[in-house]
Structures are given as structure tokens and as C-alpha cells.
């Protein structure tokens, strides 16, 4: 514990507990413009693979490669980061417009739409407008084959759908009664035209469906996961011939089920009394479908409206029977454009809208319209919605997804602000965005905190007993999405340790500010560990036995340096180290000594020292030849030694073994010995004067 401190941690990441998000909002990865100096629009986008996208439409920008006439097919190829690798035009000398793009197994992309003149890339033309297909190598932009289909009246392709080998289906409408449709002439105005070509563009079969008024086909889907039946979606105004008894109002949405040989299996209509426009359809698990339409009048199968034009989502079975329908919108015009199925099974819907209330209660950017993205569940409940665009007109045209969770919106724009920039100098241009849903990113944050402290992580308190938690960092990862952090705090227990050490006899040691001596051998103190936490250390000292003289042998000097000192020790611990005042080392016996005082330092195995002093006496009288006499005065516990003369004098008291007990220094005529400082026994007091005179006195305290 660090004095009960609070540790504040502020998380900021990127850094991957379960938090439920009601609406996982989208995040924009990039937004880019493609085009030239004139009008460039895209109507269809293809996910060629997860790293390559292709879009098709029309362009009147004469400076782009492949320009042939007024408007040409426009093909763009870019990678998943929006880096353009191909932007090229195909067509004839007049107006050409691509409505659909599809990939076929040999790697080519096929564009389909209409052409209005022969020349350039268009080798054949029948009249007015013809269906035209162009197969292109997306790697280099080379035209591999092209095909004109139709008659001398108006013919147009709206959809391409590859079913199987030899069957690249196309769907649209025709008003012709000759050439390619001579065997299946139109019944009224525009009739549904469905046919298929092989991978080389050779026409195999064509069929028409219709009544006396206008019909057109806009979408094809596989009717089952396996098998050759398909659903064709479009619009019809007739109530006769193929559509006899099926009309519900001015214009209805139809669902035509056919087999691979273009034979009708079933035909149903959806709608109310007004004008319904078909937008898109998606196949759901369980062989049901969601159909997305624009509606402008309540009645029939349409319960009510929210505003001028609304979104109508209809769920049908594979025969086109309505299971339920739901209207979505605001008080202004909301026109659905395209839909896509997301990885989580929900729906992404692109809408052209300026509403800001009811089901679309968010603020648009302004201008004529904005691109509105909505996520719906399969019951058409709105999960989230978000506007994209700028303050001028912006209109979505296509949606595609990839297997990585990204979705791409293609649109046309006149704006130069908000999601667009000033590079949009020649509007309208093809506008493409890559987005993904803001899924929570999960991460782990683990740290260590001292026991007894409190950690505050993003305002949440963690302590012992409450070590784990989850925190949400709103819009904190690199995409601006939420990060969910699993927090784990480990509280480090206070470390406790026991140490042992020794003290030499009668010594002391200062450890961490605590003095250890013979009266204080055990204590504890607080340290800081390498992790910065408290650590309680207990230290037990042991006082070692002192080194003492067990026996001493002293041989007197006869004046020729034959004195000796020998010691025998007890206490301490071996081995002992000996160091004499003469400089001799390593021996407990010292000989060849003249009379005098000597000292010995002994160190044991614990490096504990002991000091001893000895006096080697002389067998020769060393008193002053003048014959100075000394006298003593004993008064209680004080012994005074008086001698004649003055000057410095020195005295030493030793026991009968020669061990030095005490030393005295004085000036003048006296040395004073405090007998209370001496143990019982017989002692010898030796003294010498500065002039060399010496003497000795034997006494008992």
C-alpha cells in the first residue's frame, strides 16, 4: 500500500466484456470522386472480388479514354481502397448508357444497357435504341466482344444475371416486333424482354411478357439456392394478356417466376392504387424475399403513407405472394434506390431523401436531396440511419458488400462540402464511399496495483474485492468507433520477509534508520518493492560471543630481546586473524621482544575484532639512576601516585598475566587511578616519565 493512494488511469485506444449496442453506427473509410470534365454517373456496381470493384454507367466527358460520342458506356475499376485502375468509355457516336454490370467465369465484366447509333464500338444497330452488351477485360480495359439485341423500335436492358454456364441472362423491355424479337413480338407498348447469351455474347433465346400498356423488368434473382428457376421483378401498367386480372392501380410491381428456358411458372403483382416503382429485391434464408418499392398512394396492399413518396418493404414467398408489407419514411419525399444484404443477415438500404422526421428523424445536409443509408432488420424495423452528401444534390445509385464487412455506396453528386470536397469541380461525378458498421472493438487492459490502494480507471473505482470490470470508450478507436475494454486489476499483497544478521559483541548497526544493539535485536520496517508496493521486512540480529583471552603466556626480556607473548582465545569463531602492533600477522605467539608494551588485534570469522594489550617486563632494573623515590596516597577508592620532578608522565595498569587493563596520562607529580574501574585482583602499575625514569607498583583495589 502506498499510503492509500488512488491511481487514476485514463484509457485511450485501439486498442479488443460484453456491451450491447442498440445501433452500431456506420463509419466512413473513404470517399472519392471519379470522372472527367462533364457528366459522369454510375448506375450499377459490382464486387468483382474482395479487392476489386467495378462500376458502370454513362459519361459525356470527351477527354476520357474511349470516348466515341455524346454519351458512352462508362466502366470504372478500383481496388477496395478506392484507387482507380481503369476509367474508360465504350460505345457509338450517339447516346449509350450502361445500366448493369456482371462478372462471368472467364473473368470478363459485361456491361448492359442501350445504344442509339452504329459506329465506334457498336458494330450493329437496328433502330431507335437497342440493347447493347459489352464484355471488357477489367485488367487492361480491352473490349473482348460486344452484342446488339433488339429490333427497329426501342429496346433497353436494365439487368444482367449470370445463372450458369451458357446462360448470362438479361432483362429489360422492348417495343420492337422484328429482328431478335420477331418470334415473340410485343403485345402493346413496352413489354418485358428476357433472354440469355453465352459467355461469348451469342444470343440463345429471348422471350417477352406483357399486356397492352407498359411493362419493364429491372431485377433477376435465383428462386432457389439450387435449380434453374428465377424471379424477375419489374413494373406493369397492364391488366390484360399476361397481366390479365392482376392490375392493382396505375402501375404495380410484378414478380415473375420463370425457369431457365424462359417459361413462366407464376406471375403476381404487388401494390396499391397509385404508381409503385420497383427498386430492388433480396433473397432471404428460408426462400423468402424482401422487395423494396417506392409508393405514393395508400390503398390495396399499402396501408398508409408517411409523406409524399415513401419506402414500401414487402416480404414475399418464392411465388410472389405477399406475406406482409411496411411503409417507412418521413413527411417529405423518400425514394428507395438500392438494397444489399449484410453479413449479419440484416439489410442496408440506400434512399434519396430530404426528410428529417418520423422514421427519418435526422437532419439532412440540405440541397435538392441527400444520400440516406438505413439499416433494417428482416422485419423492416429501422436499426440506424445516416445521411451522406453535401449541401447540393446527392443521389445514391448502387450498393454492394464484400465478405470483410465493408459496404460500398455509389452515387452522383453536385456537392463540394461535408462528405465531398472541392475537387468536385465538374459535377456531377461518380461518387463512391467505402463504409462499415461501427462494431465494438475489444481489448484488454491489465495492470497491477498495491494492495490497499484504489485504482480509478476512466472514472470507475477498482479495489481489492472489485478487481474486474468493463469500460466502453466511445468513438475512441482509429475508425471513430467504440472500444470495449476488459479491465483486470491485480492487487499485489504486501510482501513480508524475514532476514537474519549478526552483531559483534557490544557493537551496534544502523539498518534503514533503526539502531540494532544488544538491547534491540529484533525489529521490522517498511520498504518499497520493485513494483512500488509496500514490503514489510523483519530483521533478527544475533549478538555474537566476544573474543576473550583464555590464557596468556608472557616471557620477560633479559635486555637482549628474548621476550615472548603467547595467547589462547575463547569466544568468537575460528579461524582467527592475528595482527600485532609490530606488524607481525597470522600467529598467536610473538617472540624476540624487548621489554615494552605491545598490542594485538584479533578478528574472527564474522570479522568481529578484539583488542588486547600486553607488557613484556624486563629482568633488568630500568629505574632512573638518580634513584627517584615514589610514594602513594590511598584515599577511599582513589589511588594517587606522587613522584618528584615535573613533566609528562604515563602509567599503565596490567593484571598478573600481563594483560593491559587501563592507561593513564598526566602532568606534574601525580597519576590518579580510580580503583572502582578495576575488577578484583592483583594489579601492577608501571609508569615512566618523560625524561625516561620509570617505576612500578603492585596493588589491589
In short:
It contains no helices and 52 strands.
If helices are DSSP runs of H or I spanning 4 or more residues, what is the number of helices? 0
- Helical content band: under 10%
Q: Rg from C-alpha positions?
A: 54 Å
Instruction: Return the structural class.
Output: mainly beta
Mean pLDDT across all amino acids = 88
Q: What CATH first level of the domain at 630-699 would be assigned?
A: Mainly Beta
Unreliable parts? 12-22, 621-628
The shape, in one word, is rod-shaped
Query: Which strand-content bin applies to the residues?
Result: over 45%
State the major sheet.
4 strands, antiparallel
Q: What is the correct CATH architecture of the domain at 630-699? A: Sandwich
Relevant terms:
4-stranded antiparallel sheet; 701 residues; Immunoglobulin-like; mainly beta
Give your account of this protein's structure:
Helices cover 0% and strands 53% of the residues. The chain is an all-beta fold and 701 residues long. Among the domains are: 6-19 and 440-492, no CATH class; 502-542, no CATH class; 548-616, Sandwich (Immunoglobulin-like); 630-699, Immunoglobulin-like, CATH 2.60.40. Strands 2-29-28-27 form a four-stranded antiparallel β-sheet, with no helix packed on it. Strands 3-4-5-6 form a four-stranded antiparallel β-sheet, with no helix packed on it. A hairpin with a 2-residue loop joins strand 46 and strand 47 (638-643). The radius of gyration is 54 Å and the shape is rod-shaped.
Amino acid at each position: 500500500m502506498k499510503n492509500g493512494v488512488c491511481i487514476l488511469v485514463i484509457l485511450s485506444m485501439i486498442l479488443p466484456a460484453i456491451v450491447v449496442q442498440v445501433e452500431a453506427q456506420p463509419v466512413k473509410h473513404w470517399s472519392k470522386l471519379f470522372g472527367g470534365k462533364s457528366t459522369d454517373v454510375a448506375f450499377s456496381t459490382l464486387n468483382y472480388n474482395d479487392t476489386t470493384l467495378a462500376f458502370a454507367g454513362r459519361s459525356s466527358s470527351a477527354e476520357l479514354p474511349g470516348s466515341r460520342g455524346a454519351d458512352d458506356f462508362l466502366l470504372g475499376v478500383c481496388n477496395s481502397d478506392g484507387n482507380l485502375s481503369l476509367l474508360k468509355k465504350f460505345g457509338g457516336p450517339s447516346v449509350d448508357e450502361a445500366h448493369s454490370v456482371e462478372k462471368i467465369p472467364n473473368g470478363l465484366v459485361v456491361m448492359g444497357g442501350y445504344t442509339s447509333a452504329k459506329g465506334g464500338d457498336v458494330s450493329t444497330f437496328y433502330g431507335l435504341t437497342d440493347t447493347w452488351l459489352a464484355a471488357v477485360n477489367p485488367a487492361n480495359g480491352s473490349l473482348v466482344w460486344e452484342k446488339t439485341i433488339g429490333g427497329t423500335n426501342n429496346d433497353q436492358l436494365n439487368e444482367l444475371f449470370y445463372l450458369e454456364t451458357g446462360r448470362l441472362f438479361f432483362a429489360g423491355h422492348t417495343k420492337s416486333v422484328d429482328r431478335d424479337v420477331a418470334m415473340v413480338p410485343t403485345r402493346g407498348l413496352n413489354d418485358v424482354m428476357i433472354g440469355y447469351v453465352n459467355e461469348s455474347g451469342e444470343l440463345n433465346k429471348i422471350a417477352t411478357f406483357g399486356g397492352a400498356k407498359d411493362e419493364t423488368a429491372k431485377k433477376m434473382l435465383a428462386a432457389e439456392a439450387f435449380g434453374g428457376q428465377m424471379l424477375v421483378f419489374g413494373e406493369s401498367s397492364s391488366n390484360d394478356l399476361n397481366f390479365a386480372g392482376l392490375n392493382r392501380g396505375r402501375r404495380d410491381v410484378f414478380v415473375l417466376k420463370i425457369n431457365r428456358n424462359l417459361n413462366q411458372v407464376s406471375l403476381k403483382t404487388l401494390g396499391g392504387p397509385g404508381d409503385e416503382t420497383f427498386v430492388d429485391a433480396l433473397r432471404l434464408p428460408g426462400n423468402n424475399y424482401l422487395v423494396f418499392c417506392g409508393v405514393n398512394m395508400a390503398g390495396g396492399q399499402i396501408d398508409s403513407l408517411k409523406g409524399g413518396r415513401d419506402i414500401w418493404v414487402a416480404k414475399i414467398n418464392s411465388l410472389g405472394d405477399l406475406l406482409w408489407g411496411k411503409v417507412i419514411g418521413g413527411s417529405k419525399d423518400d425514394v428507395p434506390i438500392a438494397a444489399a444484404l449484410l453479413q449479419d443477415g440484416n439489410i442496408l438500404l440506400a434512399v434519396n431523401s430530404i426528410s428529417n422526421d418520423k422514421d427519418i428523424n435526422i437532419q439532412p445536409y440540405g440541397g435538392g436531396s441527400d444520400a440516406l443509408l438505413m439499416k433494417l432488420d428482416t422485419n423492416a424495423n429501422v436499426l440506424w440511419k445516416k445521411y451522406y452528401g453535401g449541401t447540393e444534390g446527392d443521389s445514391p445509385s448502387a450498393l454492394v458488400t464484400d465478405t470483410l464487412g465493408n459496404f460500398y455506396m455509389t452515387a452522383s453528386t453536385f456537392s463540394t462540402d461535408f462528405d465531398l470536397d472541392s475537387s468536385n469541380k465538374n459535377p456531377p461525378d461518380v461518387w463512391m464511399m467505402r463504409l462499415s458498421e461501427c462494431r465494438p472493438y475489444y481489448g484488454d487492459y491489465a495492470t497491477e496495483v498495491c494492495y490497499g490502494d484504489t485504482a480509478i480507471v476512466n472514472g470507475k473505482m477498482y479495489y481489492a474485492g472489485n478487481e474486474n470490470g468493463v469500460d466502453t470508450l466511445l468513438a475512441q478507436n482509429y475508425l471513430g468507433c467504440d472500444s470495449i475494454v476488459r479491465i483486470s486489476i491485480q492487487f499485489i499483497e504486501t510482501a513480508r520477509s524475514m532476514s537474519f544478521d549478526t552483531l559483534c559483541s557490544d557493537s551496534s548497526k544502523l539498518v534503514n534508520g533503526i539502531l540494532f544493539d544488544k538491547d534491540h535485536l529484533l525489529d521490522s520496517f517498511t520498504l518499497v518493492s520493485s513494483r512500488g508496493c509496500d514490503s514489510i521486512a523483519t530483521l533478527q540480529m544475533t549478538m555474537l560471543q566476544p573474543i576473550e583471552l583464555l590464557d596468556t603466556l608472557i616471557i620477560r626480556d633479559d635486555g637482549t630481546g628474548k621476550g615472548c607473548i603467547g595467547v589462547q582465545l575463547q569466544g568468537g569463531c575460528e579461524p582467527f586473524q592475528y595482527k600485532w602492533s609490530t606488524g607481525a600477522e597470522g600467529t598467536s605467539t610473538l617472540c624476540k621482544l624487548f621489554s615494552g608494551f605491545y598490542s594485538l588485534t584479533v578478528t574472527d570469522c564474522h570479522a568481529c575484532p578484539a583488542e588486547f594489550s600486553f607488557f613484556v617486563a624486563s629482568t633488568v632494573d630500568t629505574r632512573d639512576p638518580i634513584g627517584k623515590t615514589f610514594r602513594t596516597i590511598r584515599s577511599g577508592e582513589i589511588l594517587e601516585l606522587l613522584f618528584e620532578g615535573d613533566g609528562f608522565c604515563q602509567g599503565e595498569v596490567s593484571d598478573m598475566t600481563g594483560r593491559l587493563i587501563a592507561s593513564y596520562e598526566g602532568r606534574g607529580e601525580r597519576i590518579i587511578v580510580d580503583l572502582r574501574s578495576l575488577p578484583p585482583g592483583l594489579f601492577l602499575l608501571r609508569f615512566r616519565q618523560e625524561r625516561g625514569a620509570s617505576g612500578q607498583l603492585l596493588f589491589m583495589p
